[in-house]
Amino acid sequence: MSDVPQVLLAHHLKALKLPTFLREHEKLARQCAAEGVDHLRFLLRLAELELIEREQRMVERRIRAAHFPTVKSLDSFDFPAIPSLNKALVLELARGEYIERRENVIALGNSGTGKTHVALGLGLAACQRGVSVGFTTAAALVHELLEARDEKRLLRLQKQLAGYKLLIIDELGFVPLSKSGAELLFEIFSQRYERGATLVTSNLPFDEWTEVMGSERLTGALLDRLTHHVHILEMNGESYRLKASRRQRHRQPNPAAGPT
Predict the structure, then answer these.
(1) Model confidence over 25-74: pLDDT tens digits?
(2) Are residues 53 and 178 in the same domain?
(3) Which of 45, 71, 132, 222 sits in a 20 to 30 Å window from 248, CA-based?
(4) Strand partners of residue 108
(5) How far is it, in rounded angstroms, from Cα 31 to Cα 25?
């Protein structure tokens, strides 16, 4: 009979979905007893542990739902390598206030300068602050939109994309879009205009976006919406990948040189 309260408590904690209470209560009870901590502070500590782990699980769910290709933080970004990038602005954006104001961010720069890393870092920071985030490349998004249109589920997909508080569209400009694809992409930007924050990365300056969208009229309308409330991150510099490749070549021994 002495085990009945323990069995019932475990049952109730599972039913109440309090896994941290269930896992930690015995150990913490012994610790509090040894320290002379009263029952209220014991419950307070348990509740704090439950809240911390619950928030961590929610952050992990938001990260999975965002579909990041990899998880990267701003802590690991090499700011000195890209002197054109305004570090203070990036760190301010990481606080997430632009998302609440439904403002946009555009990271512009040549290939290999860390635009995707910054986008992923800002996306991770948003997830950690309780914001729903979606991540995709421009090419993948257009393919998904065209497929959804053909399968008559476009409205459902548009509603899903409109629901993200922050939508990250990476690599706009790497692949020219078809007329239908450009129009569907424009519709996403239009639906999110002043309703949600959108972060775009591109290897092209604005005056070359017509090459991607295929229409000056459509490009003008897109930029009008996208740049109305915008923070621009200029990220021109030498490619990380080129520098890494150069360092790797320097490390490799030259077989023809012989022993030194």
Answers:
(1) 888 888 888 888 888 888 888 888 878 888 889 999 999 999 999 999 99
(2) no
(3) 71
(4) 202, 234
(5) 10
Look at residue 246 in the predicted model and tell me its pLDDT: 59
Same domain, 201 and 142: yes
Q: Which domain holds residue 32?
A: 4-57
Is residue 244 over pLDDT 70?
no
Q: What is the pLDDT of residue 255?
A: 53
Please check whether residues 127 and 30 belong to one and the same domain: no
Residue 257 pLDDT more than 70? Answer: no
pTM, entire model: 0.81
Give yes or no: residues 16 and 95 share one domain: no
Segments in the chain forming alpha helices (H):
4-15, 19-35, 39-66, 87-93, 97-100, 115-128, 138-150, 154-163, 179-192, 210-213, 216-226, 240-251
Beta bridge partners of 104: 230
Rounded to whole angstroms, how far apart are CA atoms 15 and 21? Answer: 12
Half-sphere exposure of 154 (CA within 13 A, CB side): 13
Provide the number of structural domains found in the chain: 2
> What are the tokens at 59?
């952050």
> What residues contact residue 135 under an 8 Å CB cut-off, 6+ apart?
66, 67, 68, 69, 119, 120, 123, 168, 170
